[in-house]
Design brief:
Shape: elongated
Largest sheet: 6 strands, parallel
Number of strands: 14
Strand order of the largest sheet: 6-8-9-10-7-11
Length: 929
């Protein structure tokens, strides 16, 4: 007995070769370590490999898969490079090793008869010659397999009826290895049920397994199992070949004797292809230590077998399959086609056939966009019974025959998004006018489970936790083949499902998880097809939810289509049209089209006043929206007057504690502060926050908006520590409730950076500001107003820690984008310009600083007024720049004018008033006064 331990290094796809080689070495008296025999779940791969190599030598099985850079075998041979003399390589397929391993001579085992291959292997490892007696079985996994050891991989079972092997089979290595491990590890008869939708490659996977591991079996028998009545005759054929019965014996007797024989022996494989009902197949499943593979569209095999979900290919496998099928396309073209075809093997094979006929990749993409169904009717491979489109059509027809209500649900979902739809949550909530067929499908959550199960059994969709997700290709084919009457029914059903699945107002965090699920479906529906107010309302709310998350552009596109449709179908005075206008105006505003937003809100307000009166809740909503638009356009006095009237009306009509009243108060406080009426703003925000915390709760989004604003206000009046504490508290709650990347969370983080700077924690402020602007650029985009605001703040913070050149570059870049995106007179643009003037002065560019400061002051006086705090701040900065430029008299005059206005507007004790007063005293002392 040799004392050398041989560690067999192999790729997962070559497991059959590894087991054969291990058997031969054991047979020859060597000790063997093989990962799939000796290592358990949870073992450290690196630790086990190193331990094996320390005790012996490595037998490396060279193959194309072995040198795949993503495989573990790369770690194995790299670990042995320092001990090359201890590596013994053999080739099991035609392949070229990397240059670093080429000096090692590798013997070839492939293409030889079994005895010759054995002799070559043993010579390579310098083992003893073949013994005269058969080897005893080693303990562990091999004893469970049974038999006398595997034959040479590639050799076929003595008794078999396997269909021809698919020479173009591509990928699935990990799934094949999983199947082999699962079958070999079972103590009892091992039954694996490969399930998945039509065209995903279940049959080809089972066939490739049978050929790749053919050396493990003495018998391999293929049974077409779609019709259970034909199974006994096929099993009788195997019984005759095995001499269990004589030819012509009654099938029932043959099956009984065959199952008894198989139950007493090992090393056999039965494949039941395209079985549908577990109960129908159960009488034909043998016991014993053999292996059974089942392919089926039905996933419900758990009582009879271990279900194995066969999903689509990886993108890399899809591209390889297209190439293997003879498609001459670039990597980019192959990737696009794979994406369009959902990485489904049958669809890819059909596409490759069309490409071989002369169709270009661009033409095929265009045809897929025009009619997925027509394309998937073509190019069906010879070894597949029907095209993908025909298969979907036949399956849907079968479902419609067996359970028409389930078919109605399926066709409705074909017009929504290819994402999970919360079907069971619709049960019992369907609108009154819903068709009886759909009501029959979803009478209750329990009743809806029958529909979900029926759809899953036909493998037309994925089902999980009460949701149903149609595959993209299935959707396209089903939708494309609907007749006009069928499509009309499907549209009505889709709208009813959307309405029934409506979670609740998007402002309430409780419903956000449900909105995440429903959102893609609400955005996928064609607004022109909506026929009810409820259906339109769901789409409007979905767009509002989208805008709340900073995604105004996609929301605007859908709102525009819905508004145009309502105008055309319902007229301008219809409530649905006015609601669509209300949402669209916000989308205009969020995408910086403030004038369009103002015009639309002005028109909506006029119509609502005429139709419903001044104090109707919807009229007051429009008034509040118009005030926001006016403020965005710099019409501050008009906005303030309108908002003050709106708040008064809301308090009178809806009460002081109503959420809409409180929301109006929050907005008015911001405007008061921006207009310089800071004390009024502070008092209103403190009052509003107290009521919101009591009425709505401390975690409600509206409460958090007011809290975030109040922190800014507290800092503005010098209550810096209170501001910091409130801002930190608000950020913590927003991160927990909204998520770290929500626009409101990021806005609070940006504000907190300012508060940290206020108390001298400059490095923390810079770090938080840099983190926040990075996330905003990724989530909201580099040109979003919030992103630009944080970038402008970051420029100030960088200057505060001495990184002046970085601050200057960021300030110049941000100002350029703001002027282009927001406009030269936008408050954010003017703030950045004012700060940039300071940065220019810091680096000695005094004349540029002076020019920019004078320009900014002129615009702020015109847009904000001479008494606005921002205007006064710019005036103060300009006075400093004038002094730096040697224009001391002008600086002194402007400083005194600014101090006078600040005392009158802000008060003698205001922080900035005192700062201006101190600066003037210093300037007078410098002049000897």
């Amino acid at each position: 007995m040799s004392d050398t331990v041989w560690f067999i290094s192999h790729a997962g796809a070559d497991r059959a070769w590894a087991e054969w080689a291990a058997w031969q070495l054991l047979d020859a008296g060597h000790e063997v370590e093989l990962d799939c025999w000796d290592w358990g779940a949870g073992d450290s791969f690196i630790a086990k490999m190193n331990s094996a190599l320390e005790r012996g030598r490595m037998l490396a099985l060279y193959s194309p898969a072995y040198f795949d850079p993503e495989r573990f075998t790369t770690l194995e041979w790299e670990a042995m490079l320092a001990m090359r003399e201890r590596i013994t390589p053999v080739r099991i397929a035609e392949t070229a090793p990397p240059p670093v391993l080429r000096p090692l001579i590798a013997a070839d085992l492939f293409g030889l008869h079994e005895q010759d291959a054995r002799e070559v292997l043993l010579r390579a490892v310098k083992g003893p010659t073949r013994p005269d007696r058969a080897p005893s079985r080693p303990p562990g996994m091999l004893s469970r397999i049974g038999g006398t050891g595997p034959r040479l991989p590639g050799s076929l079972p003595r008794v078999r009826n396997l269909p021809a092997r698919n020479a173009a089979f591509t990928g699935r290595d990990s799934l094949l290895v999983h199947l082999r491990e699962a079958l070999a590890a079972e103590q009892r008869v091992a039954v694996q049920a490969l399930h998945g939708r039509g065209g995903v490659g279940k049959t080809q996977l089972a066939l490739e397994y049978a050929y790749r591991f053919a050396g493990e079996y003495e018998y391999a028998w293929w049974i077409a199992a779609e019709d259970p009545a034909l199974i006994p005759g096929q099993l009788a054929g195997l019984a005759a070949r095995m001499n269990v019965v004589s030819a012509g014996a009654p099938p029932a007797d043959a099956v009984e004797l065959l199952l008894g024989e198989l139950g007493a022996m090992s090393r056999w494989l039965l494949v039941f292809d395209n079985a549908e009902e577990p109960t129908a197949l159960a009488p034909f499943l043998p016991g014993g230590p053999g292996h059974v593979l089942i392919t089926s569209r039905n996933p419900n095999w758990r009582a009879r077998a271990v279900p194995v979900d066969v999903d689509t290919l990886t993108r890399t496998e899809s591209v390889a399959l297209l190439r293997e099928q003879g498609a001459r396309v670039s990597d980019a073209e192959a990737g696009r086609l794979a994406r369009l075809l959902d990485d489904l093997p049958l669809a890819l094979v059909q596409a490759a056939a069309l490409l071989r006929r002369g169709l270009s990749a661009a033409d095929l993409e265009a045809e897929l966009a025009r009619s997925m169904r027509e394309v998937l009717e073509e190019g069906c491979p010879d070894d597949y019974p029907v095209s993908l489109a025909a298969q979907v059509r036949l399956t849907l027809t079968r479902l419609d025959t067996d359970q028409p209500a389930a078919a109605a649900v399926l066709t409705a979902l074909a017009l929504l998004a290819p994402e999970p739809f919360p079907l069971t949550s619709c049960a019992g909530r369907l609108p009154e006018q819903t068709s009886p067929l759909l009501k029959e499908a979803l009478p209750s959550r329990l009743g809806a489970g029958g529909v979900v199960e029926a759809i899953a059994r036909h493998s037309l969709a994925r089902t999980q936790n009460g949701t149903v997700q149609l595959h993209r290709l299935t959707q396209a084919v089903v939708a494309d083949q609907l007749t006009p009457p069928q499509r009309q029914d499907a549209v009505r059903h889709a709208e009813a499902l959307l309405t029934a699945a409506y979670p609740g107002t998007p402002a309430d965090p409780r419903w956000w998880p449900a909105w995440e699920v429903l959102l893609p479906h609400a955005l996928a529906v064609d607004p022109a097809c909506l026929t009810t107010s409820w259906g339109r309302y769901v789409v409007l709310q979905a767009c509002w939810y989208l805008m709340d998350r900073g995604q105004a552009h996609p929301a605007r596109e859908r709102l525009q289509r819905l508004y145009d449709t309502c105008l055309e179908q319902l007229g301008p005075d219809d409530d649905d049209t006015l609601r669509a206008a209300h949402n669209l105006a916000r989308a205009y505003d969020d995408t910086q089209e403030h004038e369009r937003a103002r015009a639309l809100d002005e028109e909506t307000l006029a119509r609502r006043r005429r139709l419903h009166g001044d104090h109707d809740p919807d009229t007051l909503n429009s008034a509040r929206n118009l005030a926001v638009r006016l403020w965005s356009l710099g019409q501050h006095e008009e906005a303030l007057i309108l908002d003050e009237k709106t708040l008064e009306a809301r308090r009178r009509v809806r009460g002081a504690d109503h959420p809409e009243t409180l929301r109006t108060a929050t907005g008015l406080a911001v405007e008061l502060a921006d207009a310089g009426r800071v004390e009024e703003a502070l008092a209103l925000e403190e009052e509003t926050l107290g009521v919101q915390r009591r009425v709505l709760g401390v975690e409600h989004p509206d409460t958090l908006v007011t809290a975030s604003n109040l922190a800014v206000r507290l800092a503005g009046v010098g209550r810096v520590e209170e501001a910091l504490a409130l801002c930190e508290e608000t950020l913590g709650v927003r991160r927990r409730v909204l998520g770290a990347e929500h626009p409101d969370t990021l806005a609070t983080a940006s504000n907190l950076a300012n508060r940290l700077a206020d108390v001298g924690r400059l490095e923390e402020a810079v770090t938080l500001c840099e983190e926040t602007v990075g996330v905003q650029r990724r989530v909201l985009g580099p040109e979003h107003p919030d992103t630009l605001r944080t970038a402008s703040n970051l420029a100030v913070r960088l200057a505060g820690v001495g990184r002046v050149e970085e601050a200057l570059a960021l300030g110049e870049e941000t100002l350029g984008v703001q002027r282009r995106v927001l406009g030269a007179e936008h408050p954010g643009t003017l703030l950045t310009a004012s700060n940039l003037a300071n940065r220019l002065a810091d680096v000695g560019r005094v004349e540029e600083a002076l020019a920019l400061c004078e320009e900014t002051l002129g615009v702020r006086r015109r847009v904000l007024g001479v008494e606005h705090p921002d205007t006064l701040r710019t005036a103060n900065n300009l006075a400093v720049s004038l002094r730096d430029a040697g224009r001391v008299e002008e600086a002194l005059a402007l400083g005194e004018e600014t101090l006078e206005v600040r005392r009158r507007v802000l008060g003698e004790d205001d922080v900035e008033t005192r700062r201006t007063a101190r600066w003037l005293e210093e300037l007078r002392r410098e002049r000897g006064e």
